[in-house]
Amino acid sequence: MKAVGLREINQHFSHYIKVVKAGEEVIITERGKPVAILKPVAPTTDLDVKIRRLEADGLLTPPRLEGSPKIHPAGFLSGPGLAQTVSEMRDER
Fold it and tell me: Can you give the residue range of the structural domain that contains 41?
């Protein structure tokens, strides 16, 4: 793992992207203090693996309720239209 200053990264960004593509992590420092890590993204095609990785990184929160949400098929729902519903709600006031 390399530690590189922010100025060096800015001046030679393409070089460090190649280093990361080769599998190495690069710690970016500012005035000697670490501020970020550049690391390669592991290629995966499995959706469940990607979701678990996002959850582990804190970028995705799993649903609180069990089961998946119900998705309505494309098409029209039965019942009165939106304009009629809004008009009826206004009349009730």
Answer: 2-56
